[in-house]
Amino acid sequence: WLPIIKSWRLNERMYGDLTGLSKKMVAQRHGDEQFKAWRRGFKVRPPKVSSFSINYPGNDLRYEKYVKDLRWSVSESIIRSIEHGRPELHKKLPKTESLKDCMDRTIPFFTHQIVPEAINEG
């Protein structure tokens, strides 16, 4: 059996404000060239998702409970505290990612956590 590893670092790419839109819809709204730049560009990020969007991972309680390896976001915490009228702490989760950002997040996790665990367990 293969072990199941749960980590936000293994999530798919965060497409920001494009999350939930079809490829066709993105191309129609923003043009083919921009669509290709976002999709294939190594350092090009799509537009950021709003902190209050249902697509922002910071609005998913699983991240609040289980993510231990991210810094706290002062600005997100202040915005949420004002919005909800009570003190809240929020992690600094990505609002958009380039392919490079995905590599920067996943490769170290793979090399420092998954590979050593696989070697130790044989």
UniProtKB/TrEMBL annotation:
<dbReference type="GO" id="GO:0016868">
    <property type="term" value="F:intramolecular phosphotransferase activity"/>
</dbReference>
<dbReference type="InterPro" id="IPR005952">
    <property type="entry name" value="Phosphogly_mut1"/>
</dbReference>
<protein>
    <submittedName>
        <fullName>Uncharacterized protein</fullName>
    </submittedName>
</protein>
<dbReference type="GO" id="GO:0006096">
    <property type="term" value="P:glycolytic process"/>
</dbReference>
<dbReference type="InterPro" id="IPR029033">
    <property type="entry name" value="His_PPase_superfam"/>
</dbReference>
